[in-house]
Structure formats: C-alpha cells, structure tokens
Design brief:
By secondary structure, this protein is mainly alpha-helical. It folds into 2 domains: 100 residues, no CATH class; 44 residues, no CATH class. It is built from 7 helices and 2 strands, in the order H-E-H-E-H-H-H-H-H. Helix 4 packs across helix 5. It is elongated, with a radius of gyration of 19 Å.
C-alpha cells in the first residue's frame, strides 16, 4: 500500500509504531521502500514514546477505566485502556516530531486503512486527462476558504 500512497498522496514521510503484542515486524517490507530512498521512514517501539510502567501513565489508564488501581478491573479492560493510551502517546509524539519537520500536511491512518481519492468529487477535483494526487487536490484549495466551499475545514475523501 505504501507505493500507492507514495504516488497518490505523495507519501514522503512515514512514522510507524510497532505493536508490542504482535510477533511479526513490518521492517522487511518498509526496508523495500527505504532502500529506494523515496520515503523517510521511522519505526518506533514503545520505548521511543510510551512507558506503561510510568506512574503517570498508570494513572491515566486507571482514569480511563474509572478505577483507583488497575487490579480493580479485568485484564481485558486494562489491555484496551493501555492500547488506547499507547495510541494517544504515539499520536502526540508523532505530531511533535512532525511539527519539528514542518510538513505541508499530515494524514493519520492505521496500517489496515488506505486513502482512495473520490474521483466524483466537486468540479475542481473531477478526472481530467490525469487523476490528480491528493497533494494536488489540496494545493488547488490553498487560496480558497475551504469551509465556505465544502461546509467544513476538512476535505472529504469517501471510502
């Protein structure tokens, strides 16, 4: 999917968080793209952005669960709350990293999701001789007030 995103978006920066509960690694696949030198790829493990043993993190998880101690709930609920907290930590650290890099735009998607532009969108996005990239679609809106034209600050790309 990264090659499709490379051409459509165009994808030039990727930050991937490894799930500590999965026995496989995306490194081999990511290396294929890394070796072409087209996409700057960073892989993070929990140690790079998340410490579940930290007391502050534990309090956040307990707060999400509505308990005073993690042993007051089921292991499954703790696992879900930990996953959600890990995701929040990742996104926060990822956005901080990207702020330092100053990209022109950012998309947040899970590994099981992908972006497909809606070629039947408004007139300015309709297919001409060549399908535009998402970047070109967004660039065409640069000097427009998107909320006046589309009803919100987001650009809808239907699944």
């Amino acid at each position: 999917m990264a090659r499709i995103h490379y051409h459509f978006l165009p994808l030039r920066r990727l930050i991937v968080a490894h799930d500590p509960h999965v026995n496989t690694s995306p490194t081999e696949i990511l290396d294929r793209h890394r070796n072409h030198g087209l996409v700057n790829i960073t892989e993070w493990n929990d140690a790079d952005y998340f410490d579940p043993s930290d007391t502050k993190t534990g309090r956040i998880i307990e707060h999400k669960l509505g308990v005073k101690h993690l042993n007051q709930t089921t292991p499954e609920k703790v696992l879900v709350a930990t996953f959600r907290t890990r995701q929040e930590y990742f996104l926060s650290n990822c956005f901080n990293q990207l702020l330092e890099e100053n990209p022109t735009w950012t998309a947040v998607i899970d590994s099981d999701e992908y972006i497909v532009p809606n070629w039947n969108a408004e007139e300015s996005f309709r297919i001409r001789d060549v399908k535009p990239t998402v970047y070109e679609m967004l660039k065409s809106l640069e000097n427009q007030n998107i909320s006046d034209n589309m009803g919100s600050a987001c650009v809808a790309m239907n699944e």
